[in-house]
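Hi U.,

Before I forget, here's the chain from the pilot set. I'm dumping it here mostly so it's searchable later in email.
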Amino acid sequence: MKKNTIMIVDDAKDNLLLLEMMLEEKYQIVQADSGQACLKLIEQSVPDLLLLDVNMPGMTGYEVCISLRKNVSTKLLPILFVSAMINAEERLAGFEAGGDEYINKPVDEQELMEKIELQVASLKERKMVEDNASDAMKVAMDAMTSSSELGQLINFVSDAQNAMTLASMGRKIVSVCEDFGLNACAYIEGSKPAFFACEDNSIEAKVLQRSLSSKERIINLGIRTIVKSEQLSLLVKNMPIEDENRYGRFKDHLAVLISITDGRLLTIKAQMDVVDQRKDVLSKIILHTEKQIKNLNKKVVEHDARSRQLMMGMITELESKLFSLGLDEDQENELMKLVYGTSDKLERSSDAVSELQEQLGSVLEGLYEILAKND
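Structure:
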């Protein structure tokens, strides 16, 4: 049985020797001591897998990987970076360059074998699928699939109009990508930026955030493609680059989806701005009303206190002078009756003011309820 060929690329001879000793029993080994030498050898014969050092003189491993991903004959080639630098930033750079895996130095032999076997098996499976697909069936399936995808796009247009929040729109575009068989995640800009189908601190999230600074609307990273607008960034992690028809069709679909989503996001944000403005106006009205009621309460209390004081003073003074007026008993009673009647009217006036205060309080509560409904 023919052995799979693995090319090892490293500028350090001891690393080349060590990796060859680990793999030579099971695989056919080809060596290259630089990025340029690697590319020249691959022009002659494409290996089944590439073990690629990152830091090399001349071309870095990332630059080699990017070059290979642009070539039709090597776009599916499994590429495993081997490096002593294994921090999150390095992994992210390898991911963006189009690498499939990252192995830390010093290399653990068991881990190396497991990852190589997994990538080789995956490549064989993809090639088997390609070999078994007949041209006639492919044409028929493409026609049926295109019709189905068009229906999904039409449904998405209608469905997007029902999205009333940025979050629901984010979920909808990830969901329609899943309907196309695409593994996608998204990032939406806003007052509270949000990720969908990926964790905030994941490599995917970092790729999405980094893509915002790019002027390109479509960024191709091997089987990964980023499609973005001013409002949204979408990362598809399994673009069918082995099928040019599907690949081109999906890129067109994604462009349409982004355009529809971007328009809906702008509408939602405009509606949110209107709501925020309405809430701001209501808040100002409530603040003004509270201030006026507070001032009114203060004036009413002060007025009521002065009125009562004046009334009690008048009654006391009148009672002390009744004797000197020379009035008979009936006249005195009639005069005091008039005074106490006036005092009762003053009490009723105070009650009316209290009722007015309660009504103003009810108006304020109504404003609070309106504000709560706009949250």
